[in-house]
Amino acid sequence: MLDAESMEEALADSSAVLEGLPEDTAELWWAGKQFFRDHHVCDLAGKIEKSTPIVKLQKKGGGAPIREPGVSEDERKAMMTFYFKQQQELQQAAEDDAEDFMTPFWADPKALKNSLRGTGNIRPF
User: InterPro entries recorded for this chain (predicted)?
Assistant: First the structure.
């Protein structure tokens, strides 16, 4: 458990401290849930000692804080280019397979007819 001095050090660079949110009008939010003044953090977050809930302060009546994106913009662009290239490679492989499927002798639909007529060994120019 953090004492008052270490709590002040932890919040020293916090945006809530810089904005000067008054203590009586601040709301505490975690995982989209609001902590009320008569509840303890362990009531909503649980009593697991290894977990560290990261909470956000919000002005009273302001609603839940905006969710942070799970993936940054640069990571999202990198993923989009990777999956686009992968999709292009899969499409190219599918086209190559479709073309290669008709070239072997065993895939010729007229092979039986040609072999019965004796024209199976004739190759086009």
Answer: CFAP298 (IPR021298)
Q: Give domain status of residue 49, yes or no.
A: yes
Please tell me whether residues 14 and 54 are part of one structural domain: yes
pTM here is: 0.39
- Going from the C-alpha of 110 to that of each of 19, 23, 102, 115, the distances in angstroms are 81, 86, 12, 9
Beginning with the edge strand found earlier in the chain, give each strand of the sheet holding 33-35 in spatial order: 33-35, 26-30, 56-59
Q: Please give the tally of structural domains in the chain.
A: 2
Amino acid at 40: H
Domain hosting residue 31, numbered range = 4-59
Tell whether the torsion through CA atoms of 8, 9, 11 and 12 is positive or negative. Answer: positive
